[in-house]
């Protein structure tokens, strides 16, 4: 008697590669978001600038555009995504990995300094030189502190600080921080000590001239530390992006026969946080044939203290060779999905006071149909019913009962008279009903009927 062995076949579940929710979950794009993704996937435009208000899904557009471009035929190694910070890069990297479900030979999402440092490291490897070193902020502060301490003791050449900067201030931490920020912003823009001194003379800033002398000493010490054969070049974080742009321009002359790093698609999330050095790097990559997708909102820049230039967002649509000018096609995300009408109104009123430099179309974004219903806002809806409490009720809540048509004047709210008050409430009964009236700032102010016609009759007059 013969028996046939049963054949088992493992079948992958239909949703094994696409989670229902979380970082890798697919999303339903609106019309403006889908237009951006389709345009990037088609690859017809050399540069695309996407403007979006807070909550309009800018990072979602970045994610879906990268996925669509790779599904259209690009290899993951041909795509570079630049994020504004290491934390944002790590988060976006996880989301992209969850959507692609594949690996890449190099990091797909990086910060601009990290990508630039990778270029410099590849160049050093091709030349047979030691790997470069990135100078940390602590090392910068220590070196500047040693130089300033030496000048305070009378060592070295007189820097010629102005009279309003006494010698006692040279050794202060706050002075070093301000000086380091000045030097790094100058390095970020490719300025040499001589250029900084010329700017100080031209704009009547004698402190800049003195800082230029110290900057020259700082560069000399860094070069001296890197003079040993087993130590590579040392780069400051502010200058590494500009050095990478120069290395790419001179790659064929310095490293003949070695292919230089190239990307076919470069995506910049939060372009309002880009620096002047990042703009120069993008120009070099664009001239090398890379397509650009720039996504940002100039109204929400938060890293200007590190050299971010929100004006680069508006300049990206200009056709030219100036700083940040890339001739990009501008698209606008016209819907906000993250917040409701109340918060959207607050954002609109705040952004109206923010100075603009040509990029304001995203401020006209509206709420989608699902968020513009007739329901009252959350801040003025009746609170949820709770189970009765066995604790002693607050006498201030039960002492009075409001009736329609009655308005509280500027008299203070009655205090609780119960010796065992569990609520510790200082509001009258008619105010404790509406959740919009529970703020501490509404006391001793006139009250009127709720403007949004919620279920409770009393709320602060707006």
Explain the overall architecture:
The protein has about 450 residues and is an alpha/beta fold. It folds into three domains: about 30-130 and about 240-370, P-loop containing nucleotide triphosphate hydrolases (Rossmann fold), CATH 3.40.50; about 135-230; about 375-460, no CATH class. It is about 35% helix and about 10% strand. The chain contains 15 helices and ten strands. It has helices at about 30-40, 60-70, 85-100, 110-125, 135-150, 175-190, 195-200, 205-225, 240-250, 250-255, 275-285, 310-315, 340-350, 395-400, 430-435, and strands at about 45-50, 80-85, 110, 135, 235, 265-270, 290-295, 330-335, 445-450, 460. Strands 3-2-6-7-1-8 form a six-stranded parallel sheet, sandwiched between helices. The chain has a two-stranded parallel sheet with strand order 4-5. Strand 9 and strand 10 (about 460) form a beta hairpin. Helix 7 packs antiparallel against helix 8 (about 205-225). The longest helix is centred in the middle third of the chain and has 20 residues, at about 205-225. It is globular. The chain starts with about 30 loop residues before the first helix and ends with a strand. Mean pLDDT is about 80; it is low at about 370-385, about 390-415 and about 420-460.
Query: What oligomeric assembly is this protein in?
Result: single chain
Mean pLDDT: 78
Radius of gyration based on Cα positions: 30 Å
- β-strand number: 10
Q: Strands of the largest sheet, in order across it?
A: 3-2-6-7-1-8
Please report the distance between the alpha carbons of the first and last residues. 91 Å
Name the CATH superfamily classification of the largest domain: P-loop containing nucleotide triphosphate hydrolases
Low-pLDDT parts are 371-386, 388-416, 420-462
- Quote the CATH topology of the largest domain: Rossmann fold
Q: Any idea of the CATH class of the largest domain?
A: Alpha Beta
- How would you spell out the order of helices and strands? HEHEHEHEHHHHEHHEHEHEHHHEE
């Amino acid at each position: 008697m013969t028996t046939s062995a049963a054949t088992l076949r493992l079948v992958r579940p239909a949703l094994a590669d696409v989670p229902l929710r979380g970082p890798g979950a697919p999303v339903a794009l609106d019309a403006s978001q889908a237009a951006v993704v389709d345009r990037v996937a088609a690859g017809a435009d050399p540069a695309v600038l996407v403007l979006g208000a807070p909550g309009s899904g800018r990072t979602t557009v970045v994610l879906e555009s990268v996925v669509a471009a790779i599904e259209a035929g690009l290899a993951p190694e041909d795509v570079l995504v630049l994020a504004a910070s290491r934390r944002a890069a790590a988060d976006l990297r996880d989301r992209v990995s969850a959507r692609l479900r594949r690996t890449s030979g190099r990091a797909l999402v990086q910060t601009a300094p990290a990508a630039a440092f990778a270029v410099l490291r590849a160049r050093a490897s091709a030349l047979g030189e030691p790997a470069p070193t990135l100078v940390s902020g602590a090392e910068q502060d220590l070196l500047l502190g040693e130089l300033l301490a030496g000048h305070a003791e009378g060592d070295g050449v007189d820097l010629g600080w102005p009279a309003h900067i006494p010698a006692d201030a040279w050794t202060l931490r706050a002075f070093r921080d301000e000086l380091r920020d000045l030097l790094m912003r100058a390095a970020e823009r490719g300025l040499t000590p001589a250029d900084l001194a010329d700017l100080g003379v031209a704009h009547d800033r004698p402190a800049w001239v003195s800082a230029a002398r110290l900057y020259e000493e700082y560069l000399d010490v860094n070069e001296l530390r890197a003079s040993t054969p087993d130590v590579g070049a040392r780069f400051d974080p502010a200058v590494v992006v500009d050095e990478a742009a120069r290395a790419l321009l001179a790659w064929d002359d310095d490293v003949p026969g070695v292919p230089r790093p190239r990307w076919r698609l470069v995506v910049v999330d939060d372009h309002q946080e880009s620096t002047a050095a990042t703009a120069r790097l993008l120009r070099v990559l664009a001239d090398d044939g890379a397509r650009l997708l720039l996504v940002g909102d100039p109204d929400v820049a938060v890293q200007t203290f590190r050299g971010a230039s929100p004006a680069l967002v508006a300049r990206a649509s200009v056709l030219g060779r100036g700083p940040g000018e890339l001739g990009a096609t501008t698209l606008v995300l016209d819907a906000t999905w993250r917040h409701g009408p109340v918060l959207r109104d607050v954002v609109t009123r705040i952004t109206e006071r923010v100075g603009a430099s040509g990029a304001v179309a995203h401020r006209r974004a509206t709420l989608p149909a699902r968020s513009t219903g007739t329901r009252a806002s959350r801040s003025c809806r009746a609170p949820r019913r709770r189970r009765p409490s066995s604790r002693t009720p607050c006498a201030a809540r039960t002492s009075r009962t409001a009736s329609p048509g009655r308005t509280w004047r500027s008299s203070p709210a009655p205090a609780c008279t119960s010796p065992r008050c569990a609520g510790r409430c200082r509001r009258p009964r008619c105010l404790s009903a509406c959740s919009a009236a529970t703020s501490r700032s509404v006391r001793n102010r006139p009250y009127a009927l709720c403007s949004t016609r919620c279920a409770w009759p009393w709320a602060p007059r707006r």
